[in-house]
Design brief:
119 residues, mainly beta, four-stranded mixed sheet, 1 helix, 8% helix, globular
C-alpha cells in the first residue's frame, strides 16, 4: 500500500524537529537555553547571533555570529514552521568535538563528529 502525498506530508510535519527558532533582543544566559530551541538574536530587522545548546547533550552553548563583518560567520534561514537551516556546518574543536549541519531544524551529524580536528 502506497501512502498518498497528503499522508506523507502529514507524517513529515508531525516529526519533531531538533531545533525551532525563537527570537530575542539579547543573547540568552547559558541556563536559559532549552534543548530543542535556537534563539535568534536580532536588533531591529538585523539578525546578529544564533544561540543554542550543543545537540550532543553536553549542554555547552553555541553562539554563532551572523554578522557580515565577523569571521567566522554563518547564515540562517527559517521556514514557515520556524525550523532553521544554518550554513556552513557547525564544528566544535574542543570538548565533545561535535560537527553537524542544521537543515530544516534537523541535526545531520558529520562522520568526523567526536574526532580530533586535523591540525
Amino acid at each position: 500500500m502506497t501512502l498518498s502525498w497528503y499522508s506523507r506530508l502529514a507524517w513529515w510535519l508531525r516529526r519533531p524537529p531538533a531545533l525551532l527558532v525563537a527570537k530575542a533582543d539579547d543573547v540568552p544566559a547559558r541556563d536559559a537555553l532549552k534543548r530543542g530551541e535556537a534563539v535568534l538574536v536580532c536588533s531591529g530587522r538585523t539578525s546578529k547571533w544564533l544561540s543554542f545548546p550543543c545537540p550532543c547533550g553536553c549542554g555547552v552553548p553555541y553562539l554563532l555570529s551572523l554578522s557580515l563583518a565577523r569571521r567566522p560567520r554563518w547564515s540562517v534561514s527559517t521556514d514557515w514552521l520556524a525550523r532553521p537551516t544554518v550554513t556552513p556546518s557547525v564544528r566544535r574543536l574542543d570538548g565533545c568535538r561535535s560537527h553537524f549541519w542544521i537543515t530544516s531544524g534537523e541535526i545531520r551529524w558529520c562522520s568526523d563528529s567526536g574526532a580530533a580536528a586535523d591540525s
